[in-house]
Amino acid sequence: MRRRDVLKYILTGAAVECINPFFNSKVLGEGLKQEDTQSYSKGLPQLKITDVKTILTAPNRIRLVVVKVMTSEPGLYGLGCATFTQRPLAVATAIEKYLKPFVIGKDADQIEDIWQTSFVSSYWRNGPVLNNAMSGIDMALWDIKGKRANMPVYQLLGGKCRFAADTYAHASGRDFQEVEDNVRRYMEDGYRHVRAQVSVSGYSTYGAGSRKAIRQKEQGEIKRIFDPSPYVRIVPKLFEHLRNKLGDEVELLHDIHERIPPIMAINLAKRLEQYRLFFLEDPFAPEDIGYFKILRQQTSIPIAMGELFNNPNEWIDLISNRLIDFIRVHLSQVGGISMGRKIAALSEFFGIRTAWHGPGDVSPVGHAANLALDLACYNFGIQERVIFQEETQDVFSGCPVIKNGYMYANEKPGLGIDVNEKLAAKYPFPPDELEGSWRPIRKSDGTVIRP
Q1: pLDDT one-digit tens code per residue, 257-290
Q2: Predicted local distance difference test score (pLDDT) of residue 210
Q3: What is the mean pLDDT of residues 80-86?
Q4: 290 DSSP 8-state letter
Q5: In terms of DSSP bridges, do strands 279-281 and 251-255 run parallel, antiparallel, or are they unpaired?
Q6: Rounded to whole angstroms, how far apart are CA atoms 153 and 210?
Q7: More exposed terminus of the chain, fewer Cβ within 10 Å: N or C?
Q8: Mean per-residue pLDDT for 79-107?
Q9: What is the Cα–Cα distance from 239 to 235, expressed in whole angstroms?
């Protein structure tokens, strides 16, 4: 073929059509067609999303939001966690009114495309409500893909790097001796990592179950009082006591929970360094992440951060500049498994380990998603443990099991969790004038503390 003919051939678009049939004017104008993707399923029939349902339940008085995605294959559905326990009804509305009509009819195999198009469908993005709504869909689609492949989700992510996920337990107490006793109890149960928190007399101390906290009732609000100075004075003494009594046989953790001014957190971190913590959690609020550069210059204490993060710009610099040691995002808060695996991959290249947020106000579906990433990601660090109460296990079959401090997958296809919808309906959200809102903590002069 002469050069002139070749040029003419290219200009007509025929060459482009031969190179890739997707690059025609019709497809460019309307996006990737579902019928064009059938070959991606390796002979399996095309699978469409036919319905989306939100399941609201509180088997242990914790507001859980679970998403059920149904498909065109009879009996094949997936479950995802969209629990934002302080704003559950807002998430349910976002799913039912906006994401449900957006995804119905789409190819259930196209998880990444559904995530990306959902992400920009609201124009404004990176908020906890919409991120949780997206997460519910995302996890459910991974669950469906695992069931369709007859594999646990961790297999789809590359397979196991470890036999189980090491976890840490929470030990608290009214005084040093009670904390020590509780740490020892966990050690006897096989735990190698324990978070230690102690009450500060007269104050509402995070994670310590303060029973004699000062409470003031004013204009109908019960005010929980906390001041940072007594807390900063007592915490180093707690860890001095624990190291003297327990030695180095256990890894100790502590959560500041962002409650103190940044400069005080830096000072506290420096004082705690000598007690060899596994990590110090959330020294700063997300609004104060600029302080991490200063903290890194002052101490080598390992830092965990991220449970309140929504936006990638909150963690990218912390990871790429090696300003933290553990990334601790809440998977449903950032958008689900799809985003979580990307965060883990980014972190691996900078020596950052994962420590996904795993408190009691995450559904068993969410914990199963955490575990799938824990097993498949090389740079796994630690997993926050949870004990599923009897009522929760009745509603959600297949809950992960903890033995000797390790969390094990049940090896069922997908995420391995199912839900009894009739029983879930017997546990409606508990009556609450604040609808689950985070109760304010205040300084003695009335100033509200974050969080």
Answers
A1: 999 999 999 999 999 999 999 999 999 999 999 9
A2: 52
A3: 96
A4: G
A5: parallel
A6: 40
A7: N
A8: 97
A9: 7
Q: What is the pLDDT of residues 15-53, one digit of tens each?
A: 444 444 443 444 444 444 545 544 454 577 899 999 999
| Residues 438/436/389/142 CA torsion (nearest 10 deg) | -90
The rounded distance, in Å, linking the Cα atoms of 254 and 273 is: 12
CA pair distance 74, 296, nearest whole angstrom:
54
Mean pLDDT in the chain? Answer: 90
Report which residue type is found at 400: P
Query: What pLDDT was estimated at residue 220?
Result: 53
Q: Does the pLDDT of residue 212 top 60, yes or no?
A: no
Closest to 171 in 3D by CA, of 141, 201, 194, 147: 194
In angstroms, the first-to-last Cα distance of the chain is 72
The answer to whether 307 and 334 have CB atoms below 8 angstroms apart is: no
Q: Single out the catalytic residue among 193, 257, 330, 367.
A: 257
| Positions of E strands within 23-105 | 49-57, 64-71, 77-81
Q: Verify whether residue 206 is a known catalytic residue.
A: yes
Please say if 257 is a catalytic residue: yes
Residue 14: pLDDT over 50: no
CA angle (87, 256, 442) in 5-degree steps: 60
| Residue 217 pLDDT > 60 | no
The dihedral region occupied by 202, where left means phi > 0, alpha psi between -120 and 50, and beta the remainder, is left
Structure tokens at 266: 């830096």
Q: Quote the CA–CA distance of 145 and 159 in Å, as a whole number.
A: 15
The amino acid occupying position 328 is R
Residue 179 near residue 171 (C-beta atoms within 8 A): yes
In terms of residues, how long is the chain? 451
Q: Is the pLDDT of residue 227 over 70?
A: yes
Integer Cα distance of 90 and 104 in angstroms: 20
Considering the candidates 191, 206, 275, 427, report the single residue annotated as catalytic.
Answer: 206
| Alpha carbon distance 167, 303 (integer Å) | 17
